[in-house]
Amino acid sequence: MDIPQRKMLIIEDEASILNGISDKFVHEGFSVIKATNGQEGLDSALKDHPDFILVDNLMPNTDGFYFLENLRRDKWGKNARVIMWSNSQDSVTIARAKK
Fold first, then answer.
1. Is the pLDDT of residue 12 over 60?
2. Could you give the CA distance from residue 15 to residue 23 in angstroms, rounded to a whole number?
3. DSSP assignments along 17-41, one per residue
4. Could you tell me the domains of the chain?
5. CA–CA separation, 21 vs 24, rounded Å?
6. 38: how many CB neighbours lie within 10 A of its CB?
7. What is the dihedral of CA 83, 84, 86, 89, to 10 degrees?
8. Residue 46 has pLDDT above 80, yes or no
């Protein structure tokens, strides 16, 4: 019996970071979906229902907060597994991400 391949959605606006993280997860056997902004990521998440989502907090236009707030409004998205990351040192941004 074949084990289904797990799907990972990675949302990151910097191509080198997106491709580096993607390559690592592909090497580990994941099927990877890439998005470069929050809206593109939201569309992919709601369409493909990935097993895990990695999202950058700081992106131009539609950021990780936009993505997460809108994802959580969806019936499926309420319980989606999401890890948000940021290189921000700002305590308000960090607290908002934790919330």
1. yes
2. 12
3. HHHHHHHHHHHTT-EEEEESSHHHH
4. 7-98 (3.40.50.2300)
5. 5
6. 26
7. -100
8. yes
Taken in order 67, 81, 86, 21, the sign of the CA dihedral is negative
Q: How confident is the model over 51-96, as pLDDT tens digits?
A: 999 999 888 788 888 999 999 999 999 999 999 887 767 777 767 7
Kindly write down the DSSP assignment for every residue of 46-97, as one continuous string. Answer: HHH--SEEEEES--SSS-HHHHHHHHTTSTTGGG--EEEE-----HHHHHHH
pLDDT value, residue 20: 96
- pTM of the prediction? 0.88
Beta-bridge mates of residue 34: 10
